[in-house]
Every structure is written in structure tokens, then in C-alpha cells.
Amino acid sequence: MRALYDVPAPAKLNLFLHVLGRRDDGYHLLQSVFVPIDWMDTLHFERRDDGQLRRHDLTEPLPADDLCLRAARALQEASGCRWGVDISIDKQVPSGAGMGGGSSDAATVLLALNRLWGLHWPRARLQALGQRLGADVPFFLGPGPAWVEGIGERLSPVALPAADYFVVKPAVSLPTREIFAHPLLARDTRAAIVEDFLADPATFGKNDLQAAARALSDEVGQAGRWLEARFGNSRMTGSGSAVFAVVSARNGAAAAAPGKEARWLKELPAGWVGRLCRGLEQHPLSGWASD
Ligand SMILES: C[C@@](CO)(OP(=O)(O)O)[C@H](O)COP(=O)(O)OP(=O)(O)OC[C@H]1O[C@@H](n2ccc(N)nc2=O)[C@H](O)[C@@H]1O
Ligand SMILES: Nc1ncnc2c1ncn2[C@@H]1O[C@H](COP(=O)(O)OP(=O)(O)O)[C@@H](O)[C@H]1O
């Protein structure tokens, strides 16, 4: 195999996110449910014989040593592989949105190079490597929606009812590190069990990072109110700034209604992006690593 084309890197939503405490190294102990959605980046891979790792930005320019290159380098070093790769990236997921775009790109690189370089690493080994690149990376190595604990490395699969979400990313981007360092951040939410969540997945819990994000930018609150006015609910994902609403027949906004998405998009303030997204039952590359 010399090339892989149109390999997806899906974004995620945190259906809720609780901060339970803080470790001695400053990382926070979380509970969350992560769900992959069909707002995705697309990557292309061509193997190189000379061992070099190169990235080509087809859309917006990414940081020089971005997570794709760091993931490729980490796998090359850990496996002792002599192949290199050209990675082309069509970036569609907004950055600094709490949608995990960079982490998902890194995970897709690990899954694709595992194939392209014939490494046959199992998922758990890729996850151990991925965790060193970012707390979200293990989730994006599949297989799908997950109940997440620890700092993001303890994953248990969770079956979710099919759902649509309207996701809005205001103009502002928020750095994860600043949100976790904010004085408004409460770190003492009580631990829940997965059954509590499963009793009512659409309304369970809250996002404990939301107050800090709103304090850093008015736009996060504005995006929440924009969604509340149309769907009757809203919640921030991850450390923001993107906010989403569950879209269902129950709140009178059935996603299937023709023309609805176009109307909502037309109403978005200038500089904001949005999309009607489907929660995915499986990561699109869930079969690419063995368990
Ligand atoms: C909190 C989440 C929830 O999804 O936020 P988003 O990034 O998605 O918004 C993620 O777990 C983030 O994952 P990721 O973005 O990969 O975080 P990292 O690069 O590992 O960490 C960035 C910084 O966030 C803080 N951090 C991150 C994760 C965590 N459990 N506790 C922390 O305190 C640390 O200050 C760290 O230096
Ligand atoms: N491949 C990548 N795509 C997007 N951002 C990246 C990538 N690699 C590194 N980054 C850096 O990570 C930061 C956070 O990006 P991202 O993962 O999209 O956001 P979030 O953690 O809020 O979901 C960006 O501002 C950017 O500097």
C-alpha cells in the first residue's frame, strides 16, 4: 500500500463535562461523554521512501509543527519505521473550539500510518502513544462514543441514541490551558456513574468549564442564547468556544425539515460558523485498529 485518500478525522462533542479534582501535575480529573460527529477534516497520505515527514495544508495554514507531524514523528520513533509520509490536510473543523480537531487529526495520522507503514499495532498501543500527544487523542482512536474519566485516558464505550446537534462556533477561539487555570473554575463536582447519564443522555449534567469560558468571552454566552432561542437548549463542548444544541422533534426543530439548516445558517452573526451535525454511532475508522 502506497497511498490512502480521503481519510476522515471527525470532531467531537462533550455531551457533559464535569471537573472532579486536580492531580499534583496540574491536570484535571474529569468525567465526560464524548461523541464523534460528522463535522470532519479530511487527510490524504502518500508513503515516502526517504523517511521524511511532510505536511501540506490544502486549506488554512496550520502551526509548523502541528499535531499531525508530531503524531507521525512519535510513531516513527516508537516503531523504528524507516518509511516517511506526505500528509495533505483539508481542515474543516474550527480550531480552539473544544471540538478536538487537532487531536482527531493526530489520531487519524496514527491510524493511517499504522496501515501505510504495515505496523499492525493494536488500538491500546496506539492509545498509549496518543495520550502523550494530548488528553483527547485516545478517544479519537475509536471505536466510538465513550464515557471518559481520568484526564481523558480512561474510556468505556457507551451506546447513545441517534441524535442531531446544531453546533455553533463564534468568532473567538479559546485556549484550553487558560480555561483550566481560570479562577471561576469549580473543581469539586461529585462523581457520577454511567447509569445516571444513560437515564437521560440529552439533559444529564453540565459543562463545568462553561462559566470560565463565558468570563473570558461574551461570545460564548451569546452563542448559547442564539441556540436557546431556536432549540430551547444549549451547552458548550470541551473548553469552548463552540456551543451546541440537541435538535429533535421534541423541541420542535426536527432536523429533517427541508431548508431548516439553510435558514439557521443564514441567521448566524458574521464571523460565526455553524453546522447541523449527526452524532456518530462509530468512529469512521473504528475498524482500522484491532482490539
Ligand atoms: C478538556 C478537554 C475536553 O474535551 O477540552 P478540549 O480540548 O476538547 O476543549 C480535553 O480533554 C483537553 O484535551 P487536549 O486539548 O488534548 O488537552 P492537552 O493538550 O492535553 O492539554 C492542554 C492543557 O489543558 C489543561 N488540561 C487538559 C486536560 C485535563 N484533563 N486537565 C487539564 O488541566 C492543561 O493545562 C494542559 O496543559
Ligand atoms: N492539526 C491541527 N489542527 C488544528 N489545530 C492544531 C493542529 N495541530 C496543532 N494545533 C493547535 O492546537 C490548538 C487547539 O486546536 P484544536 O485541537 O482544534 O482545539 P480544541 O482543543 O479547542 O478542540 C490550535 O489553536 C493550534 O494552535
Automatic annotation (TrEMBL):
InterPro entries: GHMP_kinase_C_dom, GHMP_kinase_C_sf, GHMP_kinase_N_dom, IspE, Ribosomal_Su5_D2-typ_SF, Ribsml_uS5_D2-typ_fold_subgr
Pathway noted in the entry: Isoprenoid biosynthesis; isopentenyl diphosphate biosynthesis via DXP pathway; isopentenyl diphosphate from 1-deoxy-D-xylulose 5-phosphate: step 3/6
Catalytic residue positions: K12, D136
Pfam families registered for this protein in UniProt: GHMP_kinases_C, GHMP_kinases_N
Keywords: ATP-binding, Isoprene biosynthesis, Kinase, Nucleotide-binding, Transferase
A GO molecular-function descriptor: 4-(cytidine 5'-diphospho)-2-C-methyl-D-erythritol kinase activity
EC nos: 2.7.1.148
Catalytic activity: 4-CDP-2-C-methyl-D-erythritol + ATP = 4-CDP-2-C-methyl-D-erythritol 2-phosphate + ADP + H(+)
Residues reported in the UniProt entry to bind ATP: P94, S95, G96, A97, G98, M99, G100, G101, G102, S103, S104
Signal peptide (UniProt feature, chain positions): none
Chain ranges of the GHMP kinase N-terminal domain: 67-141
Top enzyme class: transferase
Domain spans labelled GHMP kinase C-terminal: 206-254
Role played: Catalyzes the phosphorylation of the position 2 hydroxy group of 4-diphosphocytidyl-2C-methyl-D-erythritol.
Family: Belongs to the GHMP kinase family. IspE subfamily.
Classification via PANTHER family: 4-DIPHOSPHOCYTIDYL-2-C-METHYL-D-ERYTHRITOL KINASE, CHLOROPLASTIC
Protein name: 4-diphosphocytidyl-2-C-methyl-D-erythritol kinase
